[in-house]
Design a protein that fits this description.
mainly alpha; single chain; about 55% helix
Length: about 130
């Protein structure tokens, strides 16, 4: 069961772990943690997709929910606890992760050069008796 009660140390630890994962990671947890932190930082440019929580590691999910609950119940914003430079590290890593995914899916396999397959041939025409 996920508990949302957290001490100040829990919130600080959650923010540190989420930031470390988002700014240094190279897997899907880094991408989802980065999207989460950017959404809390600037939701106008980075919307929060709640369904992305299901893809986080359960430990990171709990930490993200604790941080989210703390910020929402206290009415504070993330910029009170993390610098713009730290968030730029997250944005840079997220950009790299998204670019690698795009390159590996499209350019590395030359998928972008493939042409559409030819349509199937039409069936032979029939005459009515």
């Amino acid at each position: 069961m996920i508990t949302l009660k957290a001490s100040a140390n829990d919130i600080e630890g959650a923010l540190i772990e989420l930031h470390h994962t988002a700014s240094n990671g190279a897997n899907s947890d880094a991408r989802h943690a980065g999207n989460f932190l950017l959404a809390l930082w600037d939701s106008d440019h980075h919307p929060l997709h709640i369904q992305d929580f299901q893809y986080l590691d359960p430990t990171l999910m709990r930490k993200a929910l604790q941080l989210f609950t703390f910020l929402m119940t206290t009415g504070t914003s993330l910029d009170k606890f993390i610098s713009a430079e730290a968030m730029q590290q997250v944005a840079d890593n997220l950009s790299t992760l998204n670019s690698q995914g795009f390159i590996s899916q499209n350019y590395a396999t030359n998928d972008w050069r493939r042409k559409r397959p030819a349509p199937p041939t039409a069936p032979a025409a029939r005459t009515l008796p």
